[in-house]
Amino acid sequence: MNELYQQMIIHHSRHPFGQGDVNVGSYSRGSNPLCGDQIACAVALNDDQKISIKHQTKGCSLSIASASIMSKVLEGKTIEDFEKMKDTFMQAALTDAEFIGKFACFNGVKAFPMRIKCITFPWHAVQQAILQLSYPLILDPSAIQYWSQIVKSQMATGIKVDFKQIGCYGWKFDASIVQKHLRNQLVYDYSDWKMFLEQDILEQVTGTKVLYQQEDSLTKKIIYQHPKASAMCGCGESIFLE
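^ that's the sequence the OP posted. Answer follows.
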């Protein structure tokens, strides 16, 4: 890599653009096991449908610089712009095509094939976060991390979320571990696990925010914040809908 591009990578790795709070927006994680690089990112849309990316990236200078330059270039762009830029970036990373514009500083990386993933994995994480913007349930980072840990510890496939009427108490959410892929279910990917929903509850649950948070001084639990909930039962297990 020539000196100018090396300086650009070093600058972005030391002063990454977009580094900040990843609790605002649609959350996703990504990793590069070969180098131990990790990224947590959040993508939010403003009223004009322009995206804003916040990230916390740890690892080598290449991975941090890639996340920084990506966030800088994509600030104020649309989802369609992201898709086009991602395709162009991946083509340059995986073929003989050259990186262009601000990404030209990565052309020297292609001489070291084992380092390519250092600069590509942040793009996959942002793509996953953008995909989750369209999901019916809005999962807070706390819920994503909790369910991810549960699925991994059980060597399972994912989590199935149900929404059932339970007599006079109204409606109740219920989550269960799924050991294998469920047929005839709606499937939503979360990097290393999947969420399953029945088609017939989709309209009823859309817009619900899911968190894993402290309920009292001793316990934590999954909290469902339904957009049409008018009241909650005394035990906090079921809700009344408007």
